[in-house]
């Protein structure tokens, strides 16, 4: 199928494509808005080791970067979540705590994030995670490891999930592609005759004539009363052979 034929097929089904795409976008927006809003709070901490010699100072940045990667994996463990729950006084169960950590590239910094449906609770969990991590390092790490809070988590004002605009945009894009494919399949199954200009090359024969679309005027039936029947008898059936057909309302 040539490109021009594809365009013509899509143009013939343009209303269907637009209607279905709008419907898919509306459904995606409605379903997305029904999902609970999730807020994320992030605290920034510095992970380092105490330097005792000149060699320690020279390699402190590389050591801190490795420690940040190590403690990023520790933050996501159940052990640290239990410590966070204890730091919050048991107000949040361990299974409900959503915390994660990500080291800052080539720096001895660690971002600790917490997610919750409550903005205030997300900030509390993120700050409690820094306290729990410091306690974990004190109990299990070496005496030279340090976790310093650079920027505590604040209460977020905007939610990070669901992403309504992105979801609707993706739904509309995918729906448009799917609807275009359906329109092409429907046009192929309909098997319409080619256009007048394409019939001669397609069949190799000259076109001798074409029948244009026909539209007939509305037929009006005039009822004539039978002999002896009054003119006002609209409810009475006309006699046989007493109907005249007038074309075009003449």
Give unreliable regions as ranges.
237-250
How does the helix and strand content classify structurally? alpha+beta
Instruction: Give the assembly state of these chains.
Output: single chain
Strand order of the largest sheet: 2-3-1-4
Which percent range fits the helix content?
A: 40-55%
CATH class of the domain at 39-151: Alpha Beta
- Which range does the strand content fall in? 15-25%
The outline comes out as elongated
Structure commentary:
This protein has 250 residues and is an alpha+beta fold. Among the domains are: 9-34 and 168-190, no CATH class; 39-151, EIF_2_alpha (Alpha-Beta Plaits). 48% of the residues lie in helices and 17% in strands. The chain is built from 8 helices and 6 strands; from the N terminus they run ααβαααββαβααββ. The strands form 2 sheets. A 4-stranded antiparallel beta sheet has the order 2-3-1-4. A hairpin with a 5-residue loop joins strand 2 (98-103) and strand 3. Mean pLDDT is 80; it is low at 237-250.
């Amino acid at each position: 199928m040539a490109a021009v034929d594809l365009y013509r097929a899509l143009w013939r089904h343009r209303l269907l494509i637009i209607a279905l795409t709008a419907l898919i976008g509306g459904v995606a927006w409605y379903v997305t808005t029904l999902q609970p809003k999730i807020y994320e709070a992030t605290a920034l901490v510095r992970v380092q080791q105490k330097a005792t010699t000149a060699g320690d100072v020279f390699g402190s940045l590389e050591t801190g970067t490795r420690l940040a990667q190590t403690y990023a994996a520790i933050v996501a463990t159940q052990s640290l979540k239990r410590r966070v729950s204890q730091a919050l006084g048991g107000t949040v169960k361990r299974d409900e705590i959503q915390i994660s950590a990500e080291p800052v590239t080539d720096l001895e910094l660690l971002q600790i994030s917490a997610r919750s449906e409550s903005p205030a609770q997300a900030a509390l969990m993120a700050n409690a995670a820094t306290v729990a991590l410091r306690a974990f390092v004190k109990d299990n790490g070496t005496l030279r490891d340090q976790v310093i809070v650079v920027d505590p988590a604040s209460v977020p004002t905007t939610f990070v999930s669901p992403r309504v605009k992105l979801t609707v945009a993706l739904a509309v894009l995918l729906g448009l592609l799917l609807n275009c494919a359906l329109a092409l399949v429907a046009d192929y199954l309909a098997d319409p005759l080619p256009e007048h200009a394409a019939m001669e090359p397609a069949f190799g024969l000259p076109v001798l004539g074409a029948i244009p679309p026909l539209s007939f005027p509305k037929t009006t039936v005039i009822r004539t009363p039978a002999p002896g029947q009054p003119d006002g008898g609209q409810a009475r059936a006309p006699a046989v052979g007493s109907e005249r057909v007038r074309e075009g309302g003449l």
